[in-house]
Amino acid sequence: MNVRELLIGSFKAALNAADPLQIVPKHLPDPSTFAGGKLLVIGAGKAAASMAKAVEDSYPDAVPVTGVVITRYGHGLPLRRIRVVEAGHPVPDAQGEAAAREIHDSVAALGPNDLVLALISGGGSSLLSLPVDGVTMADLKDVTRELLRCGAPIQKMNTVRKHLSRIQGGRLAALTRARIVSLIISDVTGDDPTHIASGPTAADPSTFQDALDIINYHGVTPPLSVARYLSRGARGEVPESPKPGDAAFRRVDNRVIATAHASLAMAAAYVQQRGVAPMILGDSVTGESAEVAKVYAALARQIQQYHHPIKPPVALISGGETTVTLRQPAERNQLPGRGGRCSEFLLSLGIELAGTSGVHALACDTDGIDGSEENAGALLFPDALVRAAAKGLDGSKCLARNDAFTFFHALDDLVVTGPTRTNVNDYRIILVQ
Questions:
Q1: Domains and CATH numbers, the chain
Q2: Quick check: 406 pLDDT over 60?
Q3: Burial of 77 (0-12, 13-18, 19+ CB in 10 A)
């Protein structure tokens, strides 16, 4: 068994299950449903360009298709009828703000005979950023950076962002008299449309007070404009986001068309066909990457030593979104670490396994970008710590400064895919032989 090929092959299988070019066409509305009206295609997220391409490829030129979608820098595609705008992620920028404003105004101008086809995927929260009046893009950037730094879960971050947005938290649906069909690729645990790209076409059950509580809990000091606006909202001086039961959502059809669970199931079938028993540990794993890895290391040792709860060879497969709380540099002149939650998970796993033979792993973000660098993730082999030490690297010290990228880069064990133009969150596989 070629372990490297097995691990990478399983990741490719997971990606194929979330390929917009394969998934989107099956869910497109029939042209007869918007005959006599306009079809406006809008979207935001890391999968926006490939979803838009699937729309263009599916509808013949006789069907009038126009619109604009926003995706991350480097994730665009050249299209003929739908304009693709590249913008900032995970911190929003002016390019995304201008495109979001265009989407806002275009949707607001539609009538009851028109149809909005919304293409929504992970990453849309920052890409589709249109701050409320009184909050600048600079202030929105500041609070976003602080929430990222403290490791706030994505659902919590999105609760704050919804209440600073003119377009998210269901406000896009409330803008228009047109019907809306939203095709959604989920990158969040639970696959609830309200959390995916901060739910522009989904009802928002959270409140201004919830947003304030999240900021206070994580010790974030927001810009004054943000604090004032959220406080006004909590006092009832600013209208809340549209809630479940709002009449605006009678015209909305939210369809989740790709999920982490479907990708894990495809990866499980891939390894099973190659003689390895799959054990799916869930598609909604959360928590600190380094701590989650400790639990998985204990399970891997249990399986290897005692053949319980399953006999090896087995592939432990999981998805979801862990977090990394950045540590302050121990020394004044020390540079910040490089990497993301997938590589941090693997480094912690390797330290806990301490070279245990017969245990290999891969962890990658399905969007092709793990944190701060251009790799999707990395591979972990039993001799990783020894090979790193021979290059002068201490795994524990790398982990302490959130520098897993440097560790795996030195070993040539990074997984580099380039932009995958999809996103169903993290993919992890641990092979226990």
A1: 19-258 (3.40.50.10180), 260-432 (3.40.1480.10)
A2: yes
A3: middle
